[in-house]
Amino acid sequence: MGSDRQPARLLDTLKMERVRTILTHTYPYPHEHSRHAIIAVAVGCLFFISSDNMHTLIEKLDNNIKWWSMYACLLGFFYFFSSPFIGKTIKPSYSNFSRWYIAWILVAALYHLPSFLSMGVDLRMNLSLFLTIYVSSILFLLVFHIIFLGLWYIGLVSRVAGKRPEILTILQNCAVLSIACCVFYSHCGNRAMLRKRPPERKISNWFSFFKKEERNTLLAKFLRMNELKDEVCSSWFAPVGSASDYPLLSKWVLYGELACNGSCPASSDEISPIYSLWATFIGLYIANYVVERSTGWALTHPLSVEEYENSKKKQMKPDFLDMVPWYSGTSTDLFKTVFDLLVSVTVFVGRFDMRMMQAAMSKVHDGAQGDLLYDHLSGKEDLWFDFMADTGDGGNSSYAVARLLAQPSLQLHKGDSVCTLQRGDLLLVGGDLAYPNPSAFTYERRLFCPFEYALQPPPWYKKEHIAANKPELPAQVSELKQYDGPQCFVIPGNHDWFDGLQTFMRYICHKSWLGGWFMPQKKSYFALQLPQGWWVFGLDLALHCDIDVYQFKFFSQLIKEKVGESDSVIIMTHEPNWLLDWYWNDISGKNVSHLICDYLRGRCKLRIAGDLHHYMRHSYVPSEGPSHVQQNEGPVRVPHLLVNGCGGAFLHPTHVFRNFNKLYGTTYECKAAYPSFEDSSRIALGNILKFRKKNWQFDFIGGIIYFILVFSNFPQCKLGHILRDDSFSGHLRSFFGAVWNAFLYVVEQSYVSLAGAVLLLITAICFVPSKVSRKKQLIIGVLHVLAHLAAALILMLLLEVGVETCIQHKLLATSGYHSLYQWYRSVESEHFPDPTGLRARMEQWTFGLYPACIKYLMSAFDIPEVMAVTRSNICKKGMASLSRGGAVIYYASVFLYFWVFSTPVVSLVFGSYLYICINWLHIHFDEAFSSLRIANYKAFTRFHITGDGDLEVFTLAVDKVPKEWRLDPDWDKEDKQPQQWSHHRNNPSKWSAAAGHQDPVNTVRIVDHFVIKGKDQTDPVSCDGSVSR
């Protein structure tokens, strides 16, 4: 971040209004252009590389399949390791680290293989040149930036220059520059091609493309790429002159003649093309930076203020958070969630319950709990209201649902007709407001932020305000029933209870606005009296999966005193215990069942819940058998069971619950499922294909686990028999025999690997859901661990066989730990002459630190050599001959490569395990779909109480959630009065999809519709359901 300090500028004292207009910060910091330099360098590198005869790579491999196999394995593993970072789902910090990490160890491995030497590319020289130029460039640019910031401080350049550059940007630019110099050196040589220049300057042959008479010549040159490359090297990268042309630079900078008092012997008079190329790139970087930072937007983008503001609006984007990475090994939020859950279960459950505190603090009015009953909506003729649950995960999905909820109306197709659904006057939220844990950050960023973008709070709203005496009505409203805006009532879910309901109480019960939705709610449970005899009971199940005795007392008294015999009640809970009890073969919610069966006695017409992040509706279907069979089924306690947890969280499967059919002795039939059973089963396949891309943080766990499993097997010194076999089948037989021997070694002799395997086995068995029997848990856990152990052992042997092959062919372990540095010193004077003895003086001035840094830097870069030399010493002298520091260096070098090999495989094995479990065994429904982090398939349910007392139910869904948003032009151009309510606007939401055809308002559709008859109706379960496809 740049400093906001504004020192006195020389420009302010001059009467130069035109200069001030251009050079001051009228426009903010312009675009970066460094990407164009990167593209230019990449194109140039590809040109030089493609100009060589690539078929020499095939000719020089000695027709030996082992080199092809080694290249395929090496490049394949590196590709699969880097594949998740190609998309846009990875955080820049880890993505950048992975790119540098991959480039480092991949180049360090490739330069030992024979193919590059056969192509005439000496990577050793390129590496040494790269490191030299890289370090020099970093030092030079750091000095430049310090000087430039000093000029800004004294006022010689404009304020935008005061923005400090990112260190990572400097490092990347230096790397690109160094690579360009290395490619030039490899293909053009260090010395210039001495050719006599013509007395008159001619147009370069590259521009002859526009001359008809020379087109055939140019085409021939493209067909003979070598000749074209030579021409480019000789003409474009010829020497820029001699030292005599630049006497000041040659004496002070290039050759250090001043340091030796002008008597330097045998000083070269030729400026190296390497230096000219480096100086050209450095000059371009400095020129580009100076122009951007000191002249601003006006010189390169002469836009008017109005045009600039319009372009700025087009670039505006919301700051939404990504979906929660549930398999992250580095997320502090997940570790905090686990800790909060343990504390909640051990401390709050059964010891301290916030619901007891709420009951003790509730006020009693006329025999009913005044803080819990709300009847201000009961006088309306009809009412629209919405239900959603499980929001607060990814910002895109949460905002997509909130945007639909905020629209004044939605035009939808139902069959051949178009129906208009009004915005709900009431919004019911069924819990789990923010993931993964309740905190100020997750509530503000994952819940309040999307809803405030969808429907803005009133102008006087302050985020830090605490509502001490709710409901805090607006100034012009005297009582709650006069308020005509949308209102919101919320129950907590299990995630909201992880901190004992503290965050929920602070942000829901002691705040008045969720975006533009007014929240009069005071407690975590409530009762709403709606028009035409309809009621909503919002129950707080906490972590018990049941209501407490104080809730039961309140609702039971309310039923006796207020609920009429012909009234209809909607029970809203967070968990759908009818599905979860069937799935887990358990019985929960006994107090809720007692309330429904013994107190409501058929007046509960509908149960709605979230927790499961899909949509399913089960309805009672009368039996077609004889009447005595129907009587044996008992009374219909609840005609309809509805689950809709598609408010923003990751998707859950539906096909796992397809066989549910009974509750309270009543038979039910699944009338609608979204996504469909077939789509749900197909989506699960993503665990095999996309697990690592969606859960790249799992690398930190998986790579370490695999390394521990095979730690004791490094090194494998007796692998000669694998390489000596003549046939491919013999190679395979010997290889898998070595895998079996390594497994026996882990079981019989290893301590570290065996302990890791046993710990992993215990974890895998405990990871299997208790839905299956203990015997099946044991079998599934053992098979899971054996798959991981076999994969780890195979990867270990592949790495060891590759190292052993290179050692036998004298490509590794040839001259000790510092082979690259020793080679560099042997050719340094030949390729990089130092006639003034500057390197010797630097070594003397730094007390030997300068060569030592280069020496150990090259050794640290050459990881394969360090690993191979140490491995050879262990195989010859035994592990006891290795010092503790040497052991640490060896295992660290092995881990650097083994981690790249293992992370794609561990994700593949674990993803396959989840796929098999969810589709074949119907277990791990939560784990198998949380890994996919699917933001699509979002839905909410809209209800309409008609004047006849019927309840129309519409479930609206969006199949695909947009990932890119822009400022909604309709929202932006709509007149906004200072005190205007946001719900009175025609376009209340700030952001719309960047692609208009993907906007939720345009893609929303009805996936289920049915009608529940109200009081005095003979058919209480008449419905017109439509099953989603």
UniProtKB/TrEMBL annotation:
The chain crosses the membrane at residues 37-55, 67-86, 98-117, 129-155, 167-188, 696-714, 750-768, 780-799, 888-916. Keywords: Membrane, Transmembrane, Transmembrane helix. It comes from the Eukaryota. Gene3D superfamilies: 3.60.21.10. Pfam families: Metallophos (PF00149). Residues 387-586 form the Calcineurin-like phosphoesterase domain. Residues 969-996 are annotated as: Disordered. GO terms for molecular function: hydrolase activity. The keyword Transmembrane helix applies. PANTHER family: CALCINEURIN-LIKE METALLO-PHOSPHOESTERASE SUPERFAMILY PROTEIN. This is Calcineurin-like phosphoesterase domain-containing protein. The lineage of its organism: Eukaryota, Viridiplantae, Streptophyta, Embryophyta, Tracheophyta.
